[in-house]
Every structure is written in C-alpha cells, then in structure tokens.
Write the structure tokens for this entry.
Amino acid sequence: MTTLEIPRLERAPKAARTFKVHSPIDGGAFAEAPDCGAEDARNAADRAASAFESWKRTTAYERAAILKRWHALMIQNEPEMIRLMAMEMGKPVTEGLGELKYAESFVEWYAEEAKRIYGDTIPSQFAHKRIMVARQPTGVVYAITPWNFPYAVVTRKIAPALAAGCTVILKPAEQTPLSALYLGSLWEEAGGPAGTLQVLTALDPVPVSSILLNDPRVRVLSFTGSTAVGMTLYERCAKTMKRLALELGGHAPFLIFADADLDAAVREVIACKFRNAGQTCVCTNRIYVEEKIAENFTDRLARAVAALRVGDPLDPATQIGPLVNAQGLEKVERHIRDARNKGARIVTGGASPRGLYFEPAVVTNVDSGMLLMQEETFGPVAPVLRFREESEAIRMANDTSYGLAAYLWTRDLGRAMRVAEALDYGIVGVNDGVPSTAQAPFGGRKFSGIGREGGRWGIEEYLDVKHISLALSS
Ligand code: SIN
C-alpha cells in the first residue's frame, strides 16, 4: 500500500514520536500518526482548562456559527474523508458516505441546540425572592472513541460538548487516528479557538488516559467501547468525581413474528446485522423467528446474505469490507468454530478467503451454550433461533446482561407496543432495523452503559444545573 498524502494532515499537531497506521485492506502501513504520551496529555489539559475560561463565555450564537462552518467543511471534504476511513478501518465507501452524513447531522443538530440551552424560573413562597435555574457548561471533557464509527461516534460526543461551551480532549482509537485528526483540523479551519478541541492520538492509550483520568480539571469522561473497559473507567473516575457517559457493549435480539412482512424483515436484518461488516454495537446478535415461518425466513435470509458483495472497501460496489484487524477476525472465526463444534449448521458463508475478509454467515441450530450467544461477535455472523409464542420471545430477548438495542417485526400494533414496552433495552426498533438518528437518544441499560448521546439528551451530559436564589432588597 502506498503512503497516503493528505495535505490537511500535514498540519496536524506533532508529538515526539509517531506510530504507523496499518490498513485492513492489505495490512500495509500507509501513514504515520503522532504517538502522544503523558507529557502531551498534561499540556493538553492545561490548554483545555485555559481555553474553557473564554469558550464558556462565548454566546450560543458564536458557538453555533463555528459548528455550522465545521458542518459545511465536512460536506465539502466528503470524498477525501470517506476514502481515509475506508483505508483506516475498512468501511466500504458507499456505506462510508452514510456514516459521514450521520456524523454531519450531529454537528448540524447541536449547532441548532446550542441556542436552546434554556433555564427556568420557579415561583417562590416568599414575595421578595426570585428562584432561577441556569444550565452552564461543565468544563473540560475527555472523550475516548472507538474505530467502528470514526466520524459519527466522535461528533455524537464532541459536537454537543462544544455547543454547550465545554472544551474537549479527544483520544481516538489507535486504528483510526487520521480521521479524528482530520475532524480536528476542520474544526480549526472553521474558526474553533485554540485549545477548544485537541486530538491526542496514541498507540498505547494508558499514559494519556492515566494523566487525564487523574486530573480534577477534567470534569466529564465520555467513552464508547467494551463493558470491561467501561467498568474500569467508571472506578477510575470516582477519585476525581467526574461525570460519566458510557456507551458499552450490546447483544441485540431481533424478534420476527409470523405476521411480519418477510421481505422487509430480511432487508432490515441485512441492514442491521451486516452494516460495517457486523462491527456495530447495535448490530443484532440473535435473530428469533416464530416457528411457523422460521424455515421460509431462513432460506430467504441465506439467499440475500450469499449475494452480499465482499471486497475492497474502496470499490463503490462493495457491501462488506475487511474486518478491522487480526484480533477481530480471530474472534469471528472462534465463534464460528465453537458453534460448529457444538452442533450448529452454517447455512451460508463462514470462511475467510484471504486477509481480513470474512464471508457473511447465517447459522442455525444455535443454543445458549455457544459463544455466539454469550459474547458480542462483532462480525458478519447471523445466528437464527426459533420461538413459539410472544412471552417466550420476550423472555429470551431479555435474558442477557446487556441492554443497548432490540428490534421486533410485526404488523400487529397491539403486539408492537406490548413487546416494545417489555424489552429491557435503551433503543427498540419496531419494523425498523436502523433506528439511530441525531435527534433521538442513543444509549443502553444494564451493562450497556449509562447516559445518553443524541437529541436534547446528549447535550445534558455537558451541562451543570445551577440554582440562583435572588432576594430583593426591600
Ligand atoms: C455504535 O456502534 O456505537 C454506533 C451505531 C449507531 O450509531 O447506530
């Protein structure tokens, strides 16, 4: 793979060391990124704390104007940004445009939302008192983002933080440093003042995180990643009493009732399960189909999955790109091996023809003892199970420690509401396999995390409520 030349990245912040960025397309190193350490983190915290003093005093209209310019610059640079993401983490360019549009929609939404950070006035029982409630930016935010949505998960966290008047230190995943640096450089070009958004890329996140987690000036931690790491961060933040937003793992069920529109259900299972090659927190991991339609549904699904085009993410016809790295592929292969050894039937796919590419699979004869059913596969594997009645489907769907997203498919309105209300999840798609959108809350229950991103909820994570009691002189 040749070295990537993107002039905008030449202006990215420098560190004493750099690390190589490898592409999942062929494993080759195609660029270098700054390898930040403890000293860089200390300096970034100083700069973010000092920038906060002026940024918090800007008007919502000033902040919104910068966010709007940032949004316009993202639109202007779409082709380069999509290509960069495909090279860094393998998302096919056609799907990449969808992600970038989604990322832009958070910037646009929070540019508008900045102007709606309203306060309250509350009647007092005393004639001489006035009770007011103001909402003020919390302070410096530390955002840790994953590689699977290198633009959208970043803007879903940092656009509301910046709109609220907070300053941000962003530590992107080591697999996708360049897309984060690109976003950072567009922020600067849009007029974002120095120190308001700093991107610290690092091969090893520990030295940077140790400094920032212990720094009492960092008031909010927002993290998207595994439940295990989220739990550690939760504990580590107790000492400095940080506010936390944790978007963690999921194990999404997809319930298909016999009265469902099967063509639409197949289409949406594909969109839900196979987007980003199954490397999405809200991808379904377990498809439960009512017994009487199970065979028909599985045949249709298997035919549609076998027709998916696996290949080079830079080719606009590709639907499934490579998995992100060797660990990702190893996990998917381990899950398929385990299922096969325990009696599952691989109806289609399930092999890795070359490199990090994996043929999307449909698996039946699945039981709860298989790894597929216990861990997030994070790959293009769709296990299909059966149920007999509604109560059994709900029980199986809720039988997990996770609670991020769930889906159900039916034409019966009463059942749709009953089941949606009974599912113990933060997001429920009813006849909708891709419910995520900028104006709605995104987040989970139980071991899937705490807090919400998106919509009017997303900005609350970065605002403190202040009661101002004013006693009038007589
Ligand atoms: C994620 O996997 O965190 C993002 C998925 C989405 O926003 O739909």
Remarks:
- The two ends are 78 Å apart (CA to CA).
- The chain has a mean pLDDT of 97.
- The CA atoms of residues 246 and 450 lie 5 Å apart.
